[in-house]
Design a protein that fits this description.
Length: 427
Amino acid sequence: MVLIQVALDLVELDRALLIAQEAVLGGADWIEAGTPLIKSEGMNAVRKLREAFPGKTILADMKTMDAGAVEVEMAAKSGADVVAILGRADDAVISESLESARKYGVRLMVDLISVDDPVARSQELVALGVDLINVHVGIDQQMTGKSPLETLAQISKEIDAEIAVAGGLKPETARNAAAMGAGIVIVGSYIIHSDNVTQSAKEIRQAVDNAGSVPDSGKKSQEDEIFEIFWRVSSSNISDAMHRKGAMCGISTLFPGRKIVGRAVTVRTLGGDWAKPVEAIDLCGKTDVLVIFNSDRNIAMWGGLATKTAVNRGIAGLVVDGAVRDMHEIKTFDLPVFAANVVPNAGDPKGLGEINCEITCGGQIVNPRDFIVADDSGVVVIPKERAYEIARRSEEVWKKEKRISDEIDKGKSMSSVLELLKWEKQK
Ligand SMILES: O=C(CO)[C@H](O)[C@H](O)COP(=O)(O)O
């Protein structure tokens, strides 16, 4: 049977204990004191898990890079059954950790995160005598689209040792990991950030139990995944994920409740000249957003007729650093419109400007094909090169906020959920 390990990558011990309980009900076999939990609570996290789950295997994810013997000893004495250290560590650290593991009767797992040649290194590690190899893509690496499954496919053919796998696994990928020969499937985020931990653990259990031996090759495209996530999250989540970069200034929705998710077709135009914006409509597809910079915010370069054309074309929305008019007509359509100003003054079709060039809109640089997400809080631009990473990070922000919101619903205060006093910056 393939084992499931729930990775408690949290900083609050009480919450970690609760989640572990729920994950066990869903079928988790091993419980991991994740590195953030250990850094936050020390070996007490391992002790408390040991006490609460006497029949379960407890793993201490120490990510040790130095002082192997003492770190393994600490974890073992606190009640861990398995201790995880880093494969990038020097062989001296691995050997010292192994000595300590043997002395204190625990198993040693070595994590291949950021190892240059995972196959060669895992062969060396097996030769040194480690008990388990963990094929792992870390949380920050996952955001750039890396997955542990390619490495797992190579390693499982080359080494004769028990293999664990970790790195953003969900039911589909957990199933594939099991089909590829992983003996332990480690899952953090999918379970611990779920609003139904037991159900999510069950989904992993089911996927792994029905894995068979053939991985499923059907994979969603990255573009589809980006769109799916951006529809789910808010512009505020994305701004958080981008560390407050990306939000346009002075541009807001004209019709609350309408959202845009799409890729930019950009236009730069001058003094109310509406020729280029109107020509650009004909270049837009259904997932495109027209993003326009106009140098004059008091002459409208967009109105009712342009809106009708854009709606017929089926474009995703309009973002204008400039002015629009004919609100009585525009509001009769569903088109999401975000603008800096509304005025009755009409512009003229002069043909000045450019389509699909780099523009500045609401103070943000926008390039053709960049992603735009706009909702009642405002407009954010996500450079296309970082779209997948930002989508994944904003989804993490969304999950975290959802989790805090659930706890507030249960009667806790925001300050107690976030342990604000404990985490205030010390002088
Ligand atoms: O060790 C870890 C991070 O360094 C995590 O425990 C591991 O990656 C599993 O969590 P997730 O499923 O969220 O990737």
